[in-house]
């Protein structure tokens, strides 16, 4: 074989490899809303721009409001504002974001919060740990301590800020958005466009992919994300993330240590100003999403269903849609491939979704007032 033929053979082989690697990259963007939902929806309370729901073991909820407040909420909608919440820089997409109950909550009463704190450069994403003190009709955070700060500070929206714990309860995973500085997602020294893995006290684990390094690289689990508003472990132990892409590039990704998910080098969407971005299929060295949305749904909130009320949803991922104004159900084929199987029109921008201990599904709306709603099986 001469040199030219060898080259042609390599190109051909490369193209074959690319098409196989992306054979299962499903575009669910144009799916239509499903018919009659299998649930009844009850409005329980209203909030000012709620952002996140987290369940306490006793079935009460913690609900954050983006402008800077947190409430304890009973299942009947009784709200108690939590005192001593740290000040936040609330503007646009930034403010008080996620809240998560520590795996050791039963003995420590600890909770974790993400927010953007004021800084001279604009604002920076921070992770705060605090003890939740509940007594009679009062609630407060005790000793709130920032255990991680985004470096460098500053930037625009697209903060990310989602917290997840591994099934063993030994590590905390944190999504960090690109803060509208796309190239920072590929810069290993910047805590932007990454998923980080930390110990529960915010320190750096010794077994991360780049643990031999220091600073941001040593904390980094995965690279190349844009704005992830969903991160959760499935019952089989796999970690899934969704992220808002540019125009046409929302993604659902399987998160595996050390991988690069491509932003902004590749995307299955283009920039909002119309400039094209190379597709994931052109770079097989970067991990492609098995499921994506073009047009976008603007995914927000992610919960895996393992409850008793909707046995047909067991193992499914439930995702809120801001743009889609929908609740999306993603199911997994026997080979692990995810696909959108249902999309219920909720008539409002859905910001977060959570599963209660009794198996009911709870959602909040991105609005002011934004409703907290409970979904139970239709009669
Ligand atoms: Ca990607």
Task: Describe the secondary structure blueprint for this structure.
Blueprint: H1 3-21, E1 26-27, E2 39-47, E3 50-55, E4 61-65, E5 69-73, E6 79-81, E7 96-101, H2 105-108, E8 110-119, E9 122-135, E10 138-149, E11 160-165, E12 171-176, E13 194-199, H3 215-219, E14 220-223, E15 227-233, E16 239-244, E17 250-255, E18 291-293, E19 299-304, E20 317-321, E21 326-332, E22 338-345, E23 350-355, E24 361-365, E25 370-377
Parallel strand pairs: 1-18
Antiparallel strand pairs: 2-25, 3-4, 4-5, 5-6, 7-8, 8-9, 9-10, 11-12, 12-13, 13-14, 15-16, 16-17, 17-18, 19-20, 20-21, 21-22, 23-24, 24-25
Calcium ion (CA) is lined by residues 251, 261-263, 289.
Keywords summarizing the entry:
mainly beta, 4-stranded antiparallel beta sheet, binds calcium ion, 5-stranded mixed beta sheet, Neuraminidase, about 375 residues, about 40% strand
Average pLDDT for all residues: 94
Q: In CATH, what is the homologous superfamily of the domain at 48-296?
A: TolB, C-terminal domain
Could you describe the largest sheet, including whether it forms a barrel? 5 strands, mixed
**Numbering strands along the chain, what is their spatial order in the largest sheet?**
1-18-17-16-15
The unreliable regions are 10-22
* CATH fold description of the domain at 48-296: Neuraminidase
Q: What small molecules are bound in this structure?
A: calcium ion
Strand content: 35-45%
Helix content: under 10%
Q: How many helices in DSSP terms?
A: 3
Q: What is the alpha-carbon Rg in Å?
A: 21 Å
Structural class: mainly beta
Shape: globular
